[in-house]
Specification:
The protein is about 0% helix and about 45% strand. It is built from no helices and 15 strands. The chain has a 4-stranded mixed beta sheet with strand order 1-2-7-8, with no helix packed on it. A 4-stranded antiparallel beta sheet has the order 3-4-5-6, with no helix packed on it. It is globular and about 45 Å long.
């Protein structure tokens, strides 16, 4: 059986990618990514809540403005205390945390099971867009004005596309095209 890397994402001031061991291709497309899928539709194939009945649990940290990602019974999120947290979805107990500081211009890849850094990729400014992953490539923007494409296994740059201002938007991918916005006033479609 061919081994592939499953992914989920979380962002707080810088980019983070969580890498798991062996998963089936396409696992990340089943709701364990920002806005549910590479097209960023926000439509999740799961049961919703129609009537609020209880608080299941809460986890205390500093301000949380990142979007949580869920995979294999774990909720992953970033906090303004500079940590990425992995929290058990049933109990709300911390499984691990990874300290990555704040706005250091790096995209980090973190092992989903251990919380250990796998690699980091340095840009020329802050990273605040949630990465999108397709076909072994991580796509993300930076305040240096670039959209980056980085190999998910090695963290090596494959290419970058320069705009005239910040790239804060989280890329969407469909049919071999990457769509993203820039503070230069443009929506880009690159392939």
């Amino acid at each position: 059986m061919k081994k592939t890397i499953g992914t989920i994402t979380a962002v707080i001031g810088i980019g983070l990618i969580l890498l798991s061991g062996c998963t089936k291709p396409g696992d990340h497309a089943k709701g364990a990514m920002f806005r549910a899928n590479l097209q960023r539709t926000g439509v999740y194939n799961t049961k919703g809540i129609h009537q609020l009945t209880e608080l299941k649990w809460k986890f205390k940290t500093e301000d949380v403005d990142s979007s949580p990602a869920i995979a294999d019974g774990v909720v992953y999120f970033g906090s303004f205390d500079g940590n990425l947290y992995a929290v058990d979805i049933k109990t709300g107990q911390e499984k691990w945390k990874f300290y990555f500081g704040s706005f250091d211009g790096n995209l980090y890849a973190v092992d989903i099971k251990t919380g250990q850094e796998k690699w980091k990729f340095k840009t020329e400014d802050k990273v605040a867009s949630s990465p999108a992953i397709a076909d072994g490539v991580v796509y993300f923007g930076s305040l240096d004005g670039n959209l980056y494409a980085v190999d998910i296994k090695t963290g090596q740059e494959k290419w970058k596309f320069k705009t005239k201002y910040w790239v804060l938007s989280s890329p969407a991918i469909a049919d071999g095209v990457v769509y993203f916005g820039s503070f230069d006033g443009n929506l880009y479609a690159v392939k």
